[in-house]
Amino acid sequence: xxxxxxxxxxxxxxxxxxxxxxxxxxxxxxxxxxxxxxxxxxxxxxxxxxxxxxxxxxxxxxxxxxxxxxxxxxxxxxxxxxxxxxxxxxxxxxxxxxxxxxxxxxxxxxxxxxxxxxxxxxxxxxxxxxxxxxxxxxxxxxxxxxxxxxxxxxxxxxxxxxxxxxxxxxxxxxxxxxxxxxxxx
Length: 185
Description:
The protein has helices at 2-19, 27-34, 38-44, 48-62, 73-86, 88-95, 100-123, 129-152, 159-184. Helix 5 runs antiparallel to helix 9 (159-184). It contains 9 helices and no strands. By secondary structure, it is mostly helical.
């Protein structure tokens, strides 16, 4: 029943986004359309943005075409861009709302997490925590900025093209950055 209820809430949320801006979709709208109480909503989600985050984690784990792995930072970028494109209606609604900062924070969090995992594998703990966090932040802010521009432009450029260009821009210096920060300690 729990998964069924979550899916019902998510479907209602998506349905409201078809005709309403993100900021105008209320929890009351969602619960009324599902015939659920607010308590039931809050049992499953903290907010409407929590639904957006759940969609990401749920669909990422369910989509077998999205299983690119975490072997490279490119894999994480592809995963984030695919999620964004696959959920264009939801992401565009949040991007065009007063809650855009939540979306930016979430993309930064996901980017830092994925890039951090790859950096840790590549650096072998040779970097100080402060340097590691700095390098992860630089890469995550860059990637998030590119992603937000892509959303703003309507998500028309193919993901493979974006990732290839990011790869060219970053790969040449990524190993040198890791080595330089490792040697600096």
